[in-house]
Q: What sequence folds into this?
């Protein structure tokens, strides 16, 4: 039997922004990823001039979409989307396995301002109640897979934990952080968005070690005790180590992602893999918009005409496309 030697080295002191670093802690049966975002998240959030609380919430959605989507083992897309009754009615973060990400938010400007004035602009308060959907799109004629979890007054990270507990039944710990960085320059100080996150999952070879207590059915007869089951010691340790991560560590440009995972798991030994890049890039194009317009009935296209043209603006990148009515009319 051949023995494969894994090189041992000190962690890198620097890491590039806009990267995703996979890691593994074999002694604890943990696998995870660290995301560090700079220009990509800044480009998305500044393009729409979102209010600060909305930008932070959308930045968190971008981090989660990148962490979850980068785990796909095939070419496709991962889409994280919320619909809720709070001041931020919708968030969409769309990640492709080629490393491209785009995102946008819909919100009520007045309600967001009221929440800020009342000092009640947390992510949970801005979302309200509704649902979080996670969609895996393999493209072509392949079926989409979608998991949905309720938003019940909690934030995105709480909903993500609930999704993995109920839909995937994989013990998962997730942390994300978003903040503005103040950068001094010759033209004066400027603000730049940064974001980061870490995710760890307990994936032992023996499936029975992943078992947790049964989900609460909500209608058990009075006097019936809920099912209890002790968690695996390895997962308890891994989750406890994850809980020590501070928000600043996730976005600090001076702390490399390798040093972060080493700081957390060096006593158990941590293995890192080749990082993947990520960039802000929309998938819209004039041809795609043209095809979309042609899919509408002619009567609908006629109603879209204003001042002699049809104008479509991409909600993700704000790019505008203009067409003459005859450009998208049905052939005679």
A:
């Amino acid at each position: 039997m051949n023995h494969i030697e894994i090189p041992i080295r000190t962690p890198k002191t620097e890491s590039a922004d806009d990267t995703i670093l996979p890691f593994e802690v074999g002694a604890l049966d943990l696998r995870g990823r660290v995301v560090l975002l700079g220009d990509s998240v800044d480009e998305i959030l500044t393009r729409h001039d979102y209010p600060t609380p909305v930008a932070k919430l959308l930045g968190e959605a971008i981090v989660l979409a990148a962490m979850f989507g980068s785990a796909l083992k095939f070419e496709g897309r991962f889409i994280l989307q919320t619909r809720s009754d709070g001041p931020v009615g919708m968030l969409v973060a769309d990640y492709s396995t080629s490393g491209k990400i785009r995102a946008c938010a819909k919100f009520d400007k007045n309600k967001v301002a009221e929440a800020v004035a009342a000092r009640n602009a947390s992510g949970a308060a801005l979302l309200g109640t509704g649902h979080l959907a996670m969609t895996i799109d393999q493209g072509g004629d392949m079926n989409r897979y979608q998991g949905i979890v309720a938003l019940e007054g909690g934030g995105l990270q709480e909903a993500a934990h609930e999704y993995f507990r109920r839909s995937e039944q994989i013990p998962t710990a997730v942390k994300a952080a978003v903040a503005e960085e103040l950068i001094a320059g010759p033209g004066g100080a400027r603000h730049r968005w940064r974001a980061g996150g870490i995710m760890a999952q307990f994936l032992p070879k023996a499936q029975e070690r992943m078992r947790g207590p049964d989900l609460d059915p909500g209608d058990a007869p009075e006097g019936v005790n809920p099912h209890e089951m002790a968690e695996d010691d390895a997962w308890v340790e891994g989750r406890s180590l994850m809980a020590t991560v501070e928000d600043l560590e996730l976005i600090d440009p001076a702390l490399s992602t390798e040093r972060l995972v080493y700081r957390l798991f060096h006593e158990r030994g941590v293995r890192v893999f080749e990082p993947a890049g990520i960039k802000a890039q929309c998938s819209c194009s004039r041809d795609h918009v043209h095809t979309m317009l042609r899919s509408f009935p002619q009567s609908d296209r006629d109603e879209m005409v204003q001042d002699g043209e049809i104008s479509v603006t991409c909600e993700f990148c704000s790019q505008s496309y203009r067409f003459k009515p005859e450009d998208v009319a049905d052939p005679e």
In short: The first helix runs from residue 39 to 47.
